[in-house]
Amino acid sequence: MKNYMRSKKTGIRIIPFGGLGEIGKNMMAIEVDKEIFIIDCGVAFPGQLVTDVDFYIPDFSYVIENSERIKAILVTHGHEDHIGALPYLLKSISVPIYGSPLTNGLIRVKLKEHGLTAETELNDVEPSVPIKMGSVEIEFFRVCHSIPDAMGISIKTRLGKLIHTGDFKIDHTPVDGKATNFQAMSKLAGEGVLLLCSDSTYSENDGYTPSELIIEEAFGKVIGEAKGRVIVATFASLISRMQQVIDTAAKFERKVTIAGKSMVNNVKMARKMGYIKIPDDMLVPLDEAKKIKDNRIVILATGAQGEPSSALTRIANSNHKHLKIKSGDTIVVSASPIPGNEKAISKTIDNLFRQGADVFYSKNSQVHVHGHASREELKLMISLFKPKHFIPIHGEYRHLVAHARLARKTGVDKDKVFVIEDGDVLFLTEESAGVAGNIETDLVSVKGNKISSHQFDNNS
Ligand SMILES: [Zn+2]
Ligand SMILES: [Zn+2]
């Protein structure tokens, strides 16, 4: 650790612990003078070559050492790469969590699995309702993404306003009908923005990201024309996508069953909270699905990333307890591969074709659209907030560089755009901003109940 730690200077420190220079395990500490606010706490999945790791989590050493200064964990949305590591942090420290109702619902499912429900304080937040917290005022604002209830976060400090977009795209026709709230964002922008941290995942993509709406058409075609069973694989946390599958199944008078524990749990929770709507008699347990005629059922399954233990992978490898592929089956892989997973997914798709199924995936059909802004939307976000300083977040290094260049082109002063990576400390005051040191972070992996720490090799 460099000497900035010893300096008594007051100001704002931005410290990313994951997600900057890599995809996944997003986590950022924002220190306002002595108070610390954490944004997100997610996992990253290994590529298919790594078999001894279930997932990676951020290195919590620094936040645990400074836990008495942490005021809150603010969560942008309920995807694994933003909430997956929370139970591992909450085993060591007790801090109140703030998130939207669906985000908290998904967190609650995890806390239950880890036996942490009783000791964790979860606070539901509404968009555009300011919350006083220590010396700052926090306000969440609604953004569109591939999950309902996704939020960006505004932190109003004595030095100015900090904006964190979370993951976002600009969608005028999202599945839940809650479009991007430009009014709320421009209201926040009106008072001036000291720093904008914005999602860089698709900063290499020109133009605009298509709306979720286009999937409906593809699903209608695939499910409508299928003669036999339809299996749709997606992420267990893609709540909106599951609703689209359910709506299409209803349209073609098919019942729905679910394969995969995490998906069963999430659907149960999301139904209870009203985020997934499906009539009782339309949802059937997996072991009863056999009794239903092939052309009357849609199976929602985990495994869109080729994860070894997921339902689709086990189906493809002919070792699923209830499901075996037969000719006439239609499979839809509704997800785009997370970098590193391409081979595992391709292998799964090969195996499914080999067994006589017809497979639709992002390369041969419009069955997936991702949830991140392309370059025109990123420019819009920068123009809307007109920040004094800019940090590209959520992306591998080249994504951060592409986004930084875009910010400079969009009018942010070139010396006030900072490409920083995990562990870097950006120090902000009224007069100045700059990288003021680095906190060493290890690579921390989880396999079953075992957590291991390794020295991080940046070139691997
Ligand atoms: Zn996300
Ligand atoms: Zn993400």
From TrEMBL:
Keyword Membrane: no
Protein name listed in UniProt: Metallo-beta-lactamase domain-containing protein
Gene3D superfamilies with a match to the protein in the record: Metallo-hydrolase/oxidoreductase (3.40.50.10710), Ribonuclease Z/Hydroxyacylglutathione hydrolase-like (3.60.15.10)
UniProt KW keywords: Cytoplasm, Exonuclease, Hydrolase, Metal-binding, Nuclease, RNA-binding, Zinc
Domain Metallo-beta-lactamase stretches: 24-199
SUPFAM superfamilies from the UniProt entry: Metallo-hydrolase/oxidoreductase (SSF56281)
Organism from which the protein derives: marine metagenome
GO terms, molecular function: exonuclease activity; metal ion binding; RNA binding
InterPro entries per the UniProt record, alphabetical: Metallo-B-lactamas, RibonucZ/Hydroxyglut_hydro, RMMBL, RNase_J, RNase_J_2, RNase_J_b_CASP
